[in-house]
Structure formats: structure tokens, C-alpha cells
Specification:
The longest helix has 21 residues. Helix content is 24%, strand content 35%. A hairpin with a 7-residue loop joins strand 12 and strand 13. It has one domain: tt1808, chain A, CATH 3.90.1570. The chain contains four helices and 13 strands. The radius of gyration is 16 Å and the shape is globular.
Length: 187
């Protein structure tokens, strides 16, 4: 049986490396995301960052920002938000504990990682809201479209609070007052 690695092992990887620590396993992240992934990530971050700055309600970070949950789990979400009341979890090298909101943009190589592994970790460690963004998801007989699933943590389990596709206003329970129009993200 292979010994679990800890944050101490993870911290010895070179700065800027593409590793994450999940359940005591040092995992090399796949190649750089596709351009569509980066465009959508940039637009979502822009609108959320603008809202957060205007509201003075916290801070927004993007990858590669380490989120350190425990000795066996350090993750780099695509986008994360920390409320003003919880800014104390921001340390010099990483975020120590669960952000209020995490957003992952799904790519061809991260589907299972983001929808199963990371979702389970975010749920376990108390991330209050989790967005899964599926760029250009294809369904039977229909053209591709971007779909966003919003999950809310209720007690200790995620509940699907909304699915948005093609259009619609994404409402966040964590970012009270944010109304993000999906059309602004996918145009």
C-alpha cells in the first residue's frame, strides 16, 4: 500500500507547478485548458470580481491559487470567492480552509475530476456554493451549448439549486445580489 503524501510533500513541488494533492495523492494536472475554457473562465471571473469590488464583500482568486483543506488535500480551483467575514483564511502561500464559492470549468480531461473527486472534497470540507461550468456541452440531436450547474451546500450535502443553459440569470446564494446573465459569458 502506497503511503499517503502530505502538504509537506506537496509544498516541495516547484512554485507554479501543475500539481494538486487529493486524498494524499500528488496528482499532476492535465495540459493547459483549451481557449474556450480560458475565455469562459475569464468572463465569469471578470463579472464576479467586478461585483465583489463594487460591493466590497470579499476577494476573488483564480488558478493557480492553492486551497489547503488538510494535510492530504490541497486543490487549485479555477475561480474562488472568499467573503469579507472570512478573509482571515487567506494566508501568504494558500487559502486555509473552504472558500465560500468555488467554480470549476470542465474540460475534456477534467470531467470526472471536477464532477466527482473535487465535488466530493468541496462538499466534505464545506464549500457553501459550487458551480460546474460545461462549455459547449452537446446533447442528443441539439447544438452545443454552455451549461452551468449551481450546487448549494445544505447541512453536509450538495443540492442542485439551478441549471442554466443558453440564457438565464445565475443567482448566487453566497454572493447576495449577483445576477450573472449567461449570455454575457457565452457570447
Amino acid at each position: 500500500m502506497q503511503q499517503k503524501l502530505t502538504y509537506h510533500d506537496y509544498s516541495r513541488t516547484p512554485e507554479g507547478s501543475v500539481y494538486q494533492l487529493r486524498n494524499g495523492n500528488l496528482v499532476c494536472e492535465p495540459d493547459a485548458p483549451y481557449i474556450t475554457h480560458q475565455r469562459i473562465s475569464g468572463k465569469i471571473e471578470f463579472f464576479i470580481r467586478k461585483f465583489v469590488m463594487e460591493s466590497n464583500c470579499g476577494e476573488v482568486f483564480d488558478t493557480p491559487t492553492d486551497v489547503h483543506f488538510d494535510d492530504y488535500n490541497t486543490i487549485q480551483p479555477d475561480i474562488l470567492y472568499i467573503s469579507k467575514e472570512r478573509l482571515h483564511i487567506i494566508k501568504e502561500k494558500y487559502i486555509e480552509g473552504a472558500p465560500d464559492l468555488v467554480i470549476e470549468i470542465i474540460s475534456h480531461t477534467t470531467l470526472l475530476i471536477d464532477t466527482v473527486e473535487k465535488k466530493s472534497l468541496y462538499e466534505k470540507f464545506g464549500v457553501r456554493e459550487y458551480w460546474l461550468v460545461f462549455p459547449d456541452k452537446k446533447t442528443c440531436g441539439e447544438p452545443s451549448r454552455t451549461i452551468i450547474e449551481v450546487y448549494i451546500l445544505e447541512h453536509t450535502k450538495y443540492r442542485l439549486a439551478g441549471t442554466y443553459e443558453r440564457s438565464g440569470i445565475i443567482v448566487s446564494s453566497v454572493l447576495n445580489g449577483l445576477n450573472l446573465d449567461l449570455k454575457d459569458i457565452i457570447k
